[in-house]
Specification:
87 residues; alpha+beta; 3-stranded mixed β-sheet; 3-stranded antiparallel β-sheet; 28% helix; binds iron/sulfur cluster
């Protein structure tokens, strides 16, 4: 895991580039953008991972892209036509 660059520990929390960072959440586990700082894990791209996932999958997550690519191979229209024909 990479180490957060330019981050500093302040009384308000860990701050990087003027943003106060919230720690990474469970769903971030396995993402390449995770970075470690001072014994905690943060996202190197977003200050608040919880809000990145609040509307569904984080669009910058590197660890869930493969699943999406595999799912995209199934064309829903063709699949429903096949199902309608009973094969
Ligand atoms: S890019 Fe998304 S999934 Fe990856 S660590 Fe950041 S918030 Fe988590």
């Amino acid at each position: 895991m990479q180490t957060l660059q330019n981050a500093t520990r302040t009384p308000e929390g860990v701050v990087m580039n003027g943003f106060t960072l919230s720690p990474a959440i469970d769903k971030c586990e396995g993402c390449d953008r995770l970075a470690e700082f001072d014994g905690e894990t943060f996202c190197s791209s977003y200050p608040n991972p919880t809000s990145k996932w609040s509307g569904g999958r984080c669009n910058f997550a590197t660890h869930v892209k493969l699943e999406v690519a595999a799912a995209a191979k199934v064309n829903p229209l063709k699949a429903s036509k096949r199902a309608a024909k009973g094969r």
